[in-house]
Amino acid sequence: MSEVEETIKRIQSHKGVSGIIIVNADGIPIRTTLDNSTTVQYSGLIHQLAAKAKSTVRDLDPQNDLTFLRIRSKKHEIMVAPDNEYLLIVIQNPNAV
Amino acid sequence: MSDTEGKEVSDKEKEHSEEKEMDTAKSPKPRKTPPSSGKSSPKKPGSAKSGTMTPKSPAGSRGRATPKSKGKREEIKMETPAPEEEEDATLPDHCEPIFLSSKTQTIFSCVCDSDVTKENRFKIIPKAAILEDLHNRAGVCDFHPIKNKIIEYPGEEFLLVYDRDFKFGQNFYICFSEETKEKLLHPPKKEGEVVEGEGGVPGEEAEDTTVYKYVPPQSKEWVSHGSEKEIKEESVVEMRRRLKVSVRRKRKLFGAPCKFTDRNVGDAKDGYVECTSYKDKTFDLQKIELDKGIQAIPWFMDSGTQTEWKYPRNANTQYYPREFSQHEQQEILKKKQTGTFMDGVCPRFQLALQQNEIMDVFFNDWLNLGEADNTFGSKADNHLKEYQSFADLQFSKEKKITDIQWHPTIKGIVAVSVAEKLTFDERIDNASKVIMTPSLILIWSFTDPINPQLFLEAPDDIHSFQFCPSNPNIIAGGCQNGQLVLWDISAHADRLKQPRGGNRNKRATVLPGFEDPNALKTPIVRYCAVSSIENSHHAPITDIMWLPDHVEINRMGVPQENKGFESCQIFTCATDNCILVWDTRPTKGPQQQQQGAKPKDKDGTKNPIGVPDTFKHLDLTWKPMLKVHLHKSEPGGDHAPTKFSIAEKQGDRGALSKATDGGVPDKEASVTGGYFQSGKPGSGREKRTLQTVKTHFFVGTEDGEVVYVDWMPQKDQDTGKIQTPKPDFYHTMHDGPIMTVQRSPFFMDILLVVGGWNFTIWKEAVVIDKNNPSSAESLKTLNVAENDALKSGPILQSAPNPIRMTSGFWSPSRPGVFYISKVDGSVDVWDLLDKTHEPSITQSVSPSAITKIYPHAVSHKQHLLAVGDSSGTLHILEIPWSLRLPAPNEVTGVANYFEREVKRRGFVVQRWDFREHEKRELEAEAKKKAGIAPNVLLTDEEIEYRLKLEYQAYMEAEGNFLRELGITKEEEPLPQT
User: Fold this and answer.
1) Cα B51 vs. chain centroid, distance in angstroms?
2) Which residue of B has its CA nearest to A3?
């Protein structure tokens, strides 16, 4: 099993994790644990949001950078970790915890 | 003196003007002078002087008349107009007029007005040419008359002059002398003339006398050039009367001698008037200098135009997300970069995920505060308040209320069925009275607490009834005698909808003295169908229920889709061990017969007044389509049902989505209107089977049993008959007839059963229908232990209450609350989340026993509880908000509670097995202690040996007994085994 798979499995083992998506810099999903339509929607929208958040942080302080983005909603929490090359999205349902 | 001077001036002017006139008239004048006169003067070769002087003649005469210096000026004036004209006046010397014909003109190229014109009148013609022409044309030649002169002419060339105006009688004249020719071609200069003229004045006068000839001036027509206006202005016209001055003198002074004396001018003051100059102030104004600049600039104008930019724009776009193929994904995932990224990012996620796992930081405590006030026992008002009560003196007094139903759509309408308070024996005794009094369902409106809005008449006392869920104008009721009755109140629906009792309004429109005595009366609606008495129940119908509108069942009890979404099937149960299923749609055979017979019926016997024929086809012939007979598992009678409850709910269409196709859908049945008449019951071939609809249902019996049975008939293994299978289980938990079996509106599988002195709550076991494949899913969630637990009994059983319970009902809004009515006229409110060992509230409502309760949510803010008692009064109570509003997460709380109870049951069952086992062990122990049981376990042989010993001992004892009686001999040996 590859490194990536191992990491995914490790994250998946946490309670309430309902989905993990790896997205490349262009917002194209590479690896997902969700169904296709959900993945496409999440990757497209979250990718944009993360880019915006990243630019906001950069604009505020050029030496700063976004490392982690947590979106708390009624139903779940969406966690995003952006990087130069990739974007990791994890969806967790905290109520299920 | 001055007078004469002025005269002179005027004379001069006059002269001048005369001269002018002369000038203007001059041009025509010379023509009249005879050519001979002109001819005479220029004949002298040196007469350039005289030639020029000739035209001066008139001026000369004038000059003579007024010999003044002005004459010179006038001469110049006269000279300028036309010097040539003077020449024309007379034919020059040595010239001869000649007429040249057009042919001659062409020959000599001197065509009039083309080669020669007025201005260019001269033409030189060689003498030879003329001679040649004379020679050629001879007498025809125009030069022929002057042939001699031409031949005599000394020069080589002739000068031909064009005489356009025929001054000399012909169109040309020809010169015969070189001098004249020279003079004509080169006329002398004008200045030279003038100088010569001046110079030669004395000589001139002498010559003039000879030439001068007086020509009287001719007056011409006067032409106005505006001078008359000037003249008019100049002339003096008398505008006013003349002043008259009379000068008088004393008479004695006339002719008196004058005395003149000398005196000094300086002394006389009256001699003169001096007007000295002075500075006039009026003209003392100083000019003010003013700088003023004017500049002409072009007009400026601002204007603008804008054109709309029409550019191609996308009206629609369709896109699809970019995706990597499987292979590409693998490639990227294999990259080292990806791995490092994941490693780097993973800890952050783990941190966040763990945080969430530890606690919910966003939990809102405020929302969960103040919950304490909502629970019972606090100061908040939590009592049922009397809202209204209904009692009809004639029809409901001294009767008991058997059933209550709220109108499903119209607010504030509640229907109540009443029955005589008689036991079976009393009923038989008072049969005549019972038959005479009508059996009614009363429909009350909140607007009128005195008079019911409507009476529904029934053949016998109604014990249970229900509004049709899809059409609230249809009501089905179950009679005391086992018949099923149907009413159609469509005609009176308006009456129920009216805010005020309809009967009151009528009074105003009716004339006095003509009031209809029935106008104020509440209308009585007769039933429109009643079931065939032979095929009906043989005991009072205790419970009735319309099947939800999306389901229908066929003759084999298989639930199917109802395409029309109109409820048309009714379940009824009575204590004759049967549950019957009825269909309001006509059966195929009888209906056709009936339809054939219908027209005749209409001609002859009509329906009783006011009875709609909605169910005409059913009246008195109605048979149940399915009979569920409740056999007991073991011999000893059958179950006598009083109440039942099926799983399917009205309005819950979930079952439809999971339906499987049973064949081609029967369009006709659903499309053709009048569902009561159309459609065939039980013809299940076209309709989809609803797999998820449970055919198992709970039945409460007269003996206090709760029976769980499948209504679908199965082939009995013993008899081979198709009949209702034996119940899956039944439990006797109640010590009286079951009065209520009701499912919770929040949990489909939770039932409240009320009967006798206690109530129980059951959870339906999904796992039991093994035939139903769709329940396989739920099978996983329930393990076998739980399943046993579900079979084992209720999940909650109340302690027996000192007072018998008569009815129960779940709260429509709170999942954990239900109401229980009791015979002492009180209502218990139970809240499962508050306490389960005693009711949360007990409230006395009525002095007599309560027979039925029915809570109803009228609106979001008003929930009413209808309570019917055994004295015929219907109490409407208002439910306090604490019982109305569910606590947050109440559903989950109650669900958890039920889950815990299920587990407890599982534990109980487990303990039962355990106790059973333990009991056996204990018994064995006791036996062992008493010495009966051996310490060690024996083998079979040993047991056999022991049995033999026992048998021998028995035989010995028998022998002794017989011996004592003397039946056998003393010493007779016993048979050996």
Assistant:
1) 115
2) B339
The predicted pLDDT at position A59 comes to 94
Compute φ and ψ for B119, nearest 5 degrees. -80, -40
Which residue numbers of A have CB closer than 8 Å to B's CBs?
2-5, 7-8, 10-11, 14-17, 22, 24, 26-31, 40, 43-44, 67-68, 70, 72, 77, 79, 81, 83, 85-86, 88, 90, 92, 94-95, 97
Which pLDDT does position A79 carry in this prediction?
93
Please report, in angstroms and rounded to a whole number, the separation of the first and last CA atoms in chain A.
Answer: 28
pTM score: 0.51
CB count within 10 Å of CB B562 equals 26
Range of weakest confidence among A4-13, A50-59, B1-10, B734-743: B1-10
**Which residue in chain A is spatially nearest to B360 when comparing CA positions?**
A94
User: CA separation (Å) from B919 to B468, B810, B848?
Assistant: 55, 41, 49
* Pairing label, strands B524-526, B454-458: parallel
Helix (H, G, I), strand (E, B) or coil at B583: strand
Q: Considering CB atoms only, which of A10, A31, A86 is closest to B346?
A: A10
Supply B669's token pair.
């049945």
pLDDT at B588: 57
Of A3, A22, A79, the CB nearest to B352: A79
CA dihedral over B149, B151, B156, B161, signed as positive or negative: positive
Using alpha carbons, select from B643, B632, B899 the residue that is nearest to residue B789: B899
CA-to-CA distance for B804 and B756, rounded, in angstroms? 6
Looking at residue A20, what is its pLDDT? 94
From the list B211, B187, B205, the residue with the least C-alpha distance to B83 is B187
pLDDT reported for residue B872? 87
Nearest CA to A82 among A27, A38, A37, A6? A27
pLDDT of residue A60: 95
- State the pairing for strand pair A77-82/B157-162: unpaired
B353 → closest Cβ in A44, A86, A92: A92
Beta bridge mates, B866: B854, B876
Cβ atoms within 10 A of the Cβ of B628, count? Answer: 26
A60: closest CA of chain B, how far (Å): 22
Nearest CB to B329; choose among A17, A26, A30: A30
Give me the residues of B, 306-345, that contact A with CB < 8 A: 321-324, 329, 332-334, 337-339, 341-345
B346 CB near a chain A CB, below 8 Å?
Answer: yes
Q: Are the CB atoms for B750 and B698 separated by under 8 Å?
A: no
Look up the ipTM and state it: 0.85
Q: Which residues of A touch B337 (CB under 8 A)?
A: 85-86
Rounded to 5 degrees, what angle do the CA atoms B223, B229, B235 make?
120
- State whether A4 and B354 contact (CB < 8 Å): no
DSSP B16: H
Which parts of chain B have pLDDT scores under 50? 1-15, 17-87, 190-207, 372, 374-379, 501-508, 589-606, 661-685, 766-786, 789
Q: Provide CB contacts within 8 A for B618, sequence distance 6+.
A: B486, B529, B531, B584, B586
Residue of chain A whose alpha carbon sits nearest to that of B354: A14
State residue A70's pLDDT score: 92
- Contact criterion met (CB < 8 Å) for A67 and B323: no
Mutating which of A9, A85, A93 best tests the B interface, going by the most B Cβ atoms within 10 A?
A85
Please give the DSSP secondary-structure letter assigned to residue B782: S
Residue B79 sits at the vertex; the CA angle it makes with B74 and B81, to the nearest 5 degrees, is 110
Give every CB contact of residue B925 below 8 A, 6+ residues apart in sequence: none
Q: Is the alpha carbon torsion for B84, B85, B90, B96 positive or negative?
A: positive
Q: Is B685 within 8 Å of B717 (Cβ atoms)?
A: no
Contact at 8 Å (CB) between B637 and B611? no
Nearest-neighbour CA in chain B from A59: distance (Å)? 23
